[in-house]
Design a protein that fits this description.
The protein is an alpha/beta fold and about 120 residues long. It folds into 2 domains: about 60 residues, no CATH class; about 35 residues, no CATH class. The protein is about 20% helix and about 20% strand. It is flat.
Length: about 120
C-alpha cells in the first residue's frame, strides 16, 4: 500500500483497532493511538490509516510548548494503479452500471479488474 503513496515524507501505516471505549484502555504514551483506535460501532469500515507527523520548527528549533495550528489533513498524491487490485460492483446493480464502472476504471487504472459482487448468486445447499 505504501508504494502507492507518492511522497518522500515518512509515513506511518497502521490497521485501525475498533474498541469499546468504556472497557478498553487506549495507551496514552502512543502518539498514534488517536489515529489507530476507533469506536467499535465503526468496525465494518476495516480501515488502514496512513499518518504523517510534521513537527513545527522555527529556524531549525522544534516548537513543542506553543499552540501551533495544525493542518486538518494532508493531500498526498497516490498511484491508483499500484493501490487497487480490483473493484467490486455492488449487488443488484444493473448491467449498465457495471459497464460504466468498467469503462471509467479502464480509462484511469487499466490494470484494475472490475468484478460483479457475488452476493447476487444463490447459495449452494
Amino acid at each position: 500500500m505504501t508504494e502507492s503513496l507518492e511522497t518522500d515524507e515518512k509515513i506511518y501505516v497502521g490497521v485501525v483497532s475498533y474498541v469499546d471505549p468504556s472497557s478498553t484502555w487506549i495507551p496514552e504514551q502512543n502518539l498514534f493511538g488517536p489515529f489507530t483506535y476507533k469506536h467499535l460501532s465503526f468496525d465494518y469500515e476495516r480501515e488502514l490509516r496512513a499518518v504523517i507527523q510534521r513537527i513545527p520548527r522555527v529556524g531549525g528549533a522544534l516548537i513543542v510548548h506553543e499552540s501551533v495550528p495544525s493542518e486538518v489533513g494532508i493531500a498526498i498524491p497516490i498511484n491508483v494503479t499500484t493501490l487497487l487490485e480490483s473493484i467490486s460492483v455492488g449487488p443488484q446493480q444493473p448491467s449498465w452500471f457495471h459497464e460504466a464502472v468498467a469503462l471509467t476504471v479502464e480509462a484511469l487504472a487499466p490494470s484494475t479488474t472490475v468484478l460483479q459482487s457475488n452476493l447476487d448468486t444463490d447459495p449452494v445447499h
